[in-house]
# Entry
Amino acid sequence: MNEKPEPAKAWILARGEYDKRTDEVQPDTPDILPPLPDGAPRNRLGLARWLFLPDHPLTARTTVNRFWQEVFGTGLVRTSADLGVSGELPSHPELLDWLALEFRDGGWNVKQLFKLMLTSAAYRQSAATTPDKLAKDNANRLLSRGPRFRMDAEMVRDSALAASGLLVRQVGGPSVKPYQPDGVWEAVSMGGNTQVYKRDAGDGLYRRSMYWFWKRTAPPASMDIFNAPSRETCTIRRERTNTPLQARRPPPPRPAAGRRRGGDREEIAGRVGGVLRRPRRRRPGAGHDRRYQAPAPRHRQARRLDDARQRADEPRRSPLQVNRPATPAAGDPR
# Structure
């Protein structure tokens, strides 16, 4: 990507009408903010250098506030898309300034900042509440308890994969196409190579959601019901809703994850500890063995009924067949 030989021109338009130009406007920064550094070009490179000036008051604060929103559910400034005069004042201004300085002076290290937040006493405290806390801090703006909110759509899917042991942890590579209903792209396609959605097989079904091939005019329905944005416009803060549809249709690969967990129940005595530790990250306490062994007969009966339907060649597909891992061919090293 290169700059044009001649910079783009802009004018003040009389009453906003495009054909009524008045004074020509030159690239510059708002007077209330620091000026462009000396010698910086008045283009995108100069803008990038200006954003990361040590005395710039917005870049570090805005970024830290959005990261705080990701971890705690709500930013220190609730209106994370607007830190200006029409936005809400920060609940903890000194904390916001300190985190911004730590982020800037630490070399803009994102991992270090998240580690700082996740190991803080504010995050690690219990999310349990009391009537007194609800009366004094109903929205948890004073951080009287730990965060408690539903995960985003991508995190729901990835956590189900990780808990079941199906998650493919490969980093990088091409996009993948997990399960979606047939014909999901035909209604909005204008031709080209994205007219037909062809589902992947094998490892492509179980990679992280960040690698999902996304068509903006037809976002995955399993993500949409969990308030994932369509990506047609920039979204600073996602809405979080709790609807019956989310419980009735969890994002794939929930059936495959459930099938893997069901298989583990065949040897409950030796596997219940691992099954509990993977999604909940803690060891089972007294009584968990009996609690997890009790449903096992029902799962075995359901699998027997499912096998019987398949043998009878019923037209209805079992939900446990969705996203079944591909069987390696003969000679395949997998």
Q: What stands out?
A: Confidence is low (pLDDT under 50) at residues 261-265, 313-320, 326-334.
